[in-house]
Design goal:
By secondary structure, the chain is α/β, with parallel strands linked by helices. Helix content is about 40%, strand content about 15%. It has two domains: about 5-175 and about 220-245, NAD(P)-binding Rossmann-like Domain (Rossmann fold), CATH 3.40.50; about 185-215 and about 250-360, Rossmann fold. The protein has helices spanning about 15-25, 55-60, 90-110, 150-160, 185-200, 220-230, 235-240, 255-265, 275-280, 285-295, 300-305, 310-315, 335-340, 345-360; strands at about 5-10, 30-35, 45, 70, 115-120, 165-170, 175, 205, 210-215, 215-220, 240-245, 250-255, 270, 325-330.
Length: about 375
């Protein structure tokens, strides 16, 4: 069999990084596309392309005749993160980025057989309202909320008929993995917050609000394996032109997993102290620099490490929300019935990623 050539767009982000690593370790040829180089490439070829530049994309992707799969995990986010999710230019930019890659690669790649496209639970309006419980993939009310997902989905549906390749769309919940400067990656802001408290001799205070927010997580490596399954012989038929929710398989509440997170840092659990990380962390950039120097960390300065994720931390921890019971839960039955049934304990996932960041020299070693 001809060696597979996987094109991963957004390789410096949480999902793209995991997909790049998985396929590279499988022995595939991987072209990793991102404007910023990933922390590691695992033997992949890194290609710096601005997906907003149609001409640059035609030049870069129009000659890639041997690509067999595409993983599109690239994402444009605006400063401040959440307000941009409902703005027209945010939708338009993400639409163009996808079309700028898909059009030249689908025209050039003779053996293209699968495209994985990333969505999320904003498909159900989780960013603007209480979603139906559990949210399922095929519901008529989905498109009532403007979202770039629908523009990208329309693009792939329009271009696929008559082609040899198939597509699969994935809708994960909160994704945890490896990325620097990402818009939605909670390990860096949690890790910085923990490191700051530890240096002051304090326990790990819980920064969330009094609300009980029930949600699901997904390990980035598990998501990457689901994407690989969808294009492999084992999953290709069942996953062809399908949409799947994907999670670890359990549910969690931040307050309840906080002891496991504290233990992973080697810290005791502190008090409940609701606090906006978007407001607090930038003011402590100098303290983070001192920690980087003390432990000789590979991690960059605070804004380059955390990106917009401190805003995302506020969104998920809800420090300013009054006490209430809320939930954002999705059904993964469709994916499991299709044949992908992997699962992971979410507490174990937190321990895993905190340990990896520590081993990579991005966070101080466990106390």
């Amino acid at each position: 069999m001809t060696r597979e050539h996987i094109l991963v767009a957004g390789a410096s982000g949480v999902v793209g990084y995991a997909a790049m690593k998985l396929f590279a370790e499988r022995g595939c040829r991987v072209t990793a596309v991102s404007r910023r180089p990933p922390l590691n490439t695992f033997g992949a070829e890194h290609l710096a392309v601005d997906l907003m530049d149609a001409e640059a994309c035609r030049a870069a992707f129009g000659t890639m005749t041997d690509v067999t799969r595409v993983v599109f995990a690239a994402l444009y986010e605006k400063p401040g993160l959440m307000p941009g999710w409902v703005e027209a230019d945010h939708i338009e930019t993400n639409r163009r980025m996808f079309e700028n890659l898909l059009d030249p690669i689908s025209a050039a790649a003779r053996d293209l057989r699968h495209v994985s496209l990333l969505q999320g639970t904003k498909a159900y309006g989780a960013h603007v309202r209480q979603i139906p419980l559990p949210a399922r993939e095929h519901r008529d009310e989905l498109h009532s909320q403007p979202n770039f997902y629908w523009e990208q989905e329309r693009c792939i549906r329009e271009r696929q008929p008559g082609c040899d390749w198939q597509w699969t769309i994935f809708r994960p919940q909160l994704i945890f993995g490896m990325a620097l400067g990402a818009a939605m990656n909670l390990i860096p802001p949690i890790g910085v917050y923990a490191a700051l408290l530890r240096e002051r001799g304090e326990p790990l205070h819980y920064p969330g609000g009094p609300s009980t927010f029930v949600i699901e997580a997904v390990d980035a490596d598990l998501l990457a394996r689901a994407m690989a399954w969808a294009g492999d012989d084992s999953g290709r038929d069942a996953a062809a032109n399908e949409i799947f929710n994907v999670t670890n398989g359990d549910v969690f509440v931040w307050r309840e997993v906080w002891p496991a997170i504290a233990d992973a840092f080697g810290m005791a659990v502190g008090e409940e102290r609701p606090r906006s990380m978007a407001a607090a962390l930038p003011q402590q950039a100098g303290e983070w620099d001192a920690i980087r120097d003390r432990y000789r960390l590979r991690a960059p300065e605070l804004s380059a490490f955390v990106g917009e994720s401190h805003h995302y931390m506020d969104f998920t921890f809800t420090p300013g929300v009054p006490e209430r019971t809320a939930a954002a839960l999705v059904s993964t039955i469709h994916l499991r019935q299709a044949g992908f049934a992997e699962c992971m304990d979410t507490e174990a996932m937190f321990r895993k990623w905190i340990r990896i960041y520590q081993e990579e020299g991005l966070l101080p070693p466990r106390a």
